Amino acid sequence: MLCLLKFTPLFLVVAVCHGWLFGDLFEKQKELDEISLWPLPQKYQSSAVAFKLSAASFQIVHAKQSTAGPSCSLLENAFRRYFEYMFGELKRQEKSRKKAFDSDLSELQVWITSADPECDGYPSLRTDESYSLSVDETSAVLKAANVWGALRGLETFSQLVYEDDYGVRNINKTDISDFPRFAHRGILLDSSRHFLPLKVILANLEAMAMNKFNVFHWHIVDDPSFPFMSRTFPELSQKGAYHPFTHVYTPSDVKMVIEFARMRGIRVVAEFDTPGHTQSWGNGIKDLLTPCYSGSSPSGSFGPVNPILNSSYEFMAQLFKEISTVFPDAYIHLGGDEVDFSCWKSNPDIQKFMNQQGFGTDYSKLESFYIQRLLDIVAATKKGYMVWQEVFDNGVKLKADTQIHVWKGRPQYQDEMAKVTAAGFSALLSTPWYLNRVSYGQDWVDIYKADPQNFNGTDAQKKLVIGGEACLWGEYVDATNLTPRLWPRASAVAERLWSDASVTDVGNAYTRLAQHRCRMVRRGIPAEPLFVGHCRHEYKGL
Ligand SMILES: *[C@@H]1O[C@H](CO)[C@@H](O)[C@H](O)[C@H]1NC(C)=O
Ligand SMILES: *[C@@H]1O[C@H](CO)[C@@H](O)[C@H](O)[C@H]1NC(C)=O
Ligand SMILES: *[C@@H]1O[C@H](CO)[C@@H](O)[C@H](O)[C@H]1NC(C)=O
């Protein structure tokens, strides 16, 4: 065949020769079309019986017995979205043709079984995301307790659909019963170091749903900028954002993110990190930050939140009261990491306060003093809280249901996970998943191998591991590079947190992940390549 093409332009001949020489490789790639589930379901059985799906006649419908119906806009929306993913432009083409071919599989019935399908609710840490899916002659049934499980099942169904050489959509006879290994599967994005336009945040929520992630940890403010527009303290973003109008998230922007996420079964956990990481807060709020001293006079620079003034706590009480109503999730992330003691040490008023309190020179006691008062403030809003590990490490008294976010000590996280869970706290892991760190080659492999339960501890301790988060800190990331830097590397975390602990075969993962990455590309997500290869439908650019 390649010799017949000898009169075509040189590059084509070369391409075909290549295909001939590496025929095996191409065969392998073709095969992948049919086995590209990501993350891998808990129980999965398929057979070589294939059914055709016609874009003109195939439908996703509510099962007769379902407790949800057409009034469930969350599902209606998801039906449209997944139909589009599966058929894209085909629907219009086939409809315009005189006759559509007979579809072997005419519909997917979505059957919600519990009395309350939760159409208008929010997902939570306790949400049941399990589902079962059976694809057989004439119809397919997706069964879930509530809409959240149905969303996960719709994603899986769409991944089962593949395109044959004629562009016809096929699906094999399949039985799946699936549920997540961990309840908290998150992505952290940082909108302070660089402002992230809404469009980028929404695109990543789309990609998260494709990977069955269920928590968007919005590290919304930090030292460099304060883009969150507060109704109670508008001066925070007026003076603390990079620009008071173009680089802010208005209340309606925030609402849109929360609703877009909800429609995809994703919680939005906002982080307002204090007492460190608050330089931008100081621009708008007088006396909030500690004045640093150089010798006996103020140096003009400022440190962490001033923990000795009552006004600091009055401010926090009002701000967190607002935050607790803006973000519906049951948890708020309070940060508490990397508090720099040097400024506190330099300040004579703080030194005096330390003496009065009997803290000696132990500034972690002052930090604890601050955090404990903050926790009381947040507890009064009826929210639960997540904190970075330092808060635990420094011995701050914590409510029993506090979630400790482990991030330090890369690559060693085992001791900290053991300590946190031995103390009876819920733990989530990020140490091996700082995806802002990039290195040449296939760094997804180490990301994939890390396991949050891989530490020495009792079963009870292992049960306290609620999951983990992939973090993409923003020092070197903005809208230009965020998506390809995050995907498909974050997909490796997605499978670790969803699939069974025994799913560890890197070779098998590679073939599925390469294909999953192509699927994300096809759906408009510019996910970067894993290695040499091609996608049937390449990224077309902007
Ligand atoms: C799906 O069916 C096709 C056609 O019978 C078969 O070649 C392929 O191996 C099947 N794939 C899976 C994953 O069972
Ligand atoms: C701060 O509040 C506490 C308790 O509410 C009070 O005892 C104390 O005098 C106040 N300090 C200042 C400086 O106002
Ligand atoms: C668990 O403890 C054993 C014995 O002390 C040690 O050899 C091993 O490395 C530990 N495993 C982890 C994951 O920390």
TrEMBL record:
Q: How does it assemble?
A: There are 3 forms of beta-hexosaminidase: hexosaminidase A is a heterodimer composed of one subunit alpha and one subunit beta (chain A and B); hexosaminidase B is a homodimer of two beta subunits (two chains A and B); hexosaminidase S is a homodimer of two alpha subunits. The composition of the dimer (isozyme A versus isozyme S) has a significant effect on the substrate specificity of the alpha subunit active site.
Q: What family is this?
A: Belongs to the glycosyl hydrolase 20 family.
Alphabetically list the UniProt keywords. Answer: Cytoplasmic vesicle, Disulfide bond, Glycoprotein, Glycosidase, Hydrolase, Lipid metabolism, Lysosome, Signal
Can you say what this protein is called?
Beta-hexosaminidase
- Residue ranges of the Glycoside hydrolase family 20 catalytic domain? 182-500
EC supergroup of this enzyme: hydrolase
Stretch forming the signal peptide:
1-19
Q: What cystine pairs are annotated?
A: 72-119, 292-343, 518-535
Any one GO biological process: angiogenesis
Q: Which organism is the protein's source?
A: Danio rerio
Main localization (coarse): cytoplasm
Catalytic residues in the record: 338
Compartmental location: Cytoplasmic vesicle, Secretory vesicle, Cortical granule; Lysosome
Q: What lineage is this protein's organism placed in?
A: Eukaryota, Metazoa, Chordata, Craniata, Vertebrata
Sum up the protein's function in the record's words. Answer: Hydrolyzes the non-reducing end N-acetyl-D-hexosamine and/or sulfated N-acetyl-D-hexosamine of glycoconjugates, such as the oligosaccharide moieties from proteins and neutral glycolipids, or from certain mucopolysaccharides. The isozyme B does not hydrolyze each of these substrates, however hydrolyzes efficiently neutral oligosaccharide. Only the isozyme A is responsible for the degradation of GM2 gangliosides in the presence of GM2A. During fertilization is responsible, at least in part, for the zona block to polyspermy.
Q: Which InterPro entries match?
A: Beta_hexosaminidase_sua/sub, GH, Glyco_hydro_20_cat, Hex-like_dom2, HEX_eukaryotic_N
Does the keyword field hold Hydrolase?
yes
Beta-hexosaminidase eukaryotic type N-terminal domain sequence ranges: 37-160
Q: Give the Enzyme Commission number.
A: 3.2.1.52
